[in-house]
Amino acid sequence: MIEEDKRAEEIKERWRRWFDARADWDVQAREDIDFYLGNHFTDAEASDLAERNQMGLPVDRLYAAIEQFKAIITSKPPKFSAVGREDSDTKLANVWKTILEYIWDKSDGDEVFKQVVHDYSVTGLGYFYSYIDPEDDYYSAMKRRNARRKDGLRQLFFKDQGDETQGDPKEYEVTEKVF
């Protein structure tokens, strides 16, 4: 019988712990999104309130607070800075600063940043994902499709990916943006 490497077992255990934590976070994030959208009570809690002749209508202050937070945080685009190693590198540092600002504008950085702040505010996790597109020459001819599932989770698809919704089209609201 082949002995298993202890390092492999340790890696498997780490992965299981990470996966279980991620699954727990998914459940909690779904509940947080529901709460943000106004679903404050479970069916059992709503029926209990109805039995007591109380309204199950919450006064929702969370939505307005999150929208105000997003507006304050994302009111201005970020300021980029680059510092050269030597005094002679100031011109090159200025070039890098200009390149970073151009990339931010070209990539719809403001819109992505608003969505990151929103996701962080509601679910506790918001992140940027950046990558170098090797086919950037064709980028201007592509359409970006932003499909929003009706359950609140977002998915981003490009025109060349085939079946964008990967499921029932009734579950998605699709918007297109031509670059």
Structure report:
The protein is mainly alpha-helical and 179 residues long. It folds into three domains: 1-60; 63-130, no CATH class; 135-179, no CATH class. Helices cover 47% and strands 11% of the residues. Strands 2-1-3 form a three-stranded antiparallel sheet, with no helix packed on it. Strand 1 (143-149) and strand 2 (154-158) form a beta hairpin. Helix 3 (62-73) packs antiparallel against helix 5. It is flat. Residues 139-152 and 155-179 have low confidence and may be disordered.
Mean pLDDT: 76
Q: What percent of residues are in strands?
A: 5-15%
Overall structural class, as computed from helix and strand content, comes to: mainly alpha
Low-confidence stretches: 139-152, 155-179
Order of strands, main sheet, comes to 2-1-3
Which helices and strands, and how do they pair?
Blueprint: H1 6-36, H2 43-51, H3 62-73, H4 90-106, H5 109-123, E1 143-149, E2 154-158, E3 172-178
Antiparallel strand pairs: 1-2, 1-3
Question: Which tags fit this structure?
Answer:
single chain; mainly alpha; 3 domains; 5 helices; 47% helix; disordered C terminus
What is this entry, summarized?
The protein is mainly α and 179 residues long. The protein has five helices and three strands.
